Amino acid sequence: MTELVDVLQRPLHDLRISVTDRCNFRCVYCMPKEVFGPSFAFLPRRELLTFEEIARLAAIFRDLGVHKLRITGGEPLVRRDVDTLIERLHGIEGIDDIAMTTNGALLTPDRAQKLAESGLRRVTVSLDSLDNDVFQSINDVGFPVERVLDAIQAAADAGLTPVKINMVVKRGVNDHDIIPMAAHFRHTGQVLRFIEYMDVGTANGWRMDDVVPAQEIVQRISQEWPIEALTPDRPGDVARRYRYLDGGGEFGVITSVTQPFCGACSRARLSPEGQLYLCLFGQRGYDLRTPLRDGASDDELRAQIVNIWRTRTVRYSEERSEHTTPLPKVEMFRIGG
């Protein structure tokens, strides 16, 4: 399939697969509770791709150069028997890395072990504060932050390592937790990543004034501990990595707002109902479910994906300004982070 990979012109290495639009958090970053309350209409089950359909599409993407899959949501662990899906994906020759992003609320030791046995390699857990009041105000949940910390430990014990922890930093909300979070995860072998507050979706009231630039985050940490920059592991990595000079491990920053990386992006995103998005801030999805269910062959589906990817022009982050007007972006809980 080398000729197919070549015809893409831009590399396509990473497929993000959202398996559900449901979440057990309603966080202020992507699902504010005043919009996504109990009466919000989520997708009917029949509209979701089946595991068989997801696996078939993943194999087609493999032919086009994808070797890394990430299972996202919503909250992927809300999807029943998601370990069965991972087992199917693990069986696709050429897929060498399957990861998951989760809020950790449902990641018990037993479940972490089952996911590992199914073929999951790594887990990224979202955690925006160690302070219970801040954590609960951001995520609108009725349980303590210790539950997420227990999930992180469960993942580590199951070998889903290195566990990465994503902290979205919003000025005036949790930026005072930058140093406590860094201190907590130093010397643990777990990798904390600070993410600039992004204008995902259409309902989170994003303003540039709320963004704490990655450069400021790095400066704050460097005032506490000596650090140095690391080179990227591979082309297309979105996190800028730093290590503590005292051997405390490393952390990363993701600069989607202040230093966007659209030109190096090698990711596509598949929504739970089979829409292909080329950007986290995508305004338009491309329907793969209809041809899939109408009997299209693998070759026909492959050709459709090639045509979509090779004409890709999306670079929302590079075009963003402080005065960006509201755009009809897809909601983040539908395509994952």
Tell me about this structure.
- Helix 3 packs parallel to helix 4.
- Strands 7-8-9-6-5-4-3-2-1-10-11-12 form a 12-stranded mixed sheet.
- The two termini are 29 Å apart.
- By secondary structure, it is α/β, with parallel strands linked by helices.
- It has helices spanning 2-7, 51-63, 82-90, 109-118, 132-139, 146-157, 178-185, 214-222, 289-293, 298-310, 316-319, 332-335; strands at 14-18, 68-72, 97-102, 122-126, 164-169, 191-196, 227-229, 239-244, 250-254, 267-270, 275-277, 286-287.
- The relative contact order is 0.16.
- The chain has one domain: Alpha-Beta Barrel (TIM Barrel), CATH 3.20.20.
- A hairpin with an 8-residue loop joins strand 11 (275-277) and strand 12.
How are the secondary structure elements laid out?
Blueprint: H1 2-7, E1 14-18, H2 51-63, E2 68-72, H3 82-90, E3 97-102, H4 109-118, E4 122-126, H5 132-139, H6 146-157, E5 164-169, H7 178-185, E6 191-196, H8 214-222, E7 227-229, E8 239-244, E9 250-254, E10 267-270, E11 275-277, E12 286-287, H9 289-293, H10 298-310, H11 316-319, H12 332-335
Parallel strand pairs: 1-2, 1-10, 2-3, 3-4, 4-5, 5-6, 6-9
Antiparallel strand pairs: 7-8, 8-9, 10-11, 11-12
Helix pairs in contact: 2-3, 2-10, 3-4, 4-6
Summarize this entry quickly.
The chain has 337 residues and is α/β, with parallel strands linked by helices. The chain has helices at residues 2-7, 51-63, 82-90, 109-118, 132-139, 146-157, 178-185, 214-222, 289-293, 298-310, 316-319, 332-335, and strands at 14-18, 68-72, 97-102, 122-126, 164-169, 191-196, 227-229, 239-244, 250-254, 267-270, 275-277, 286-287.
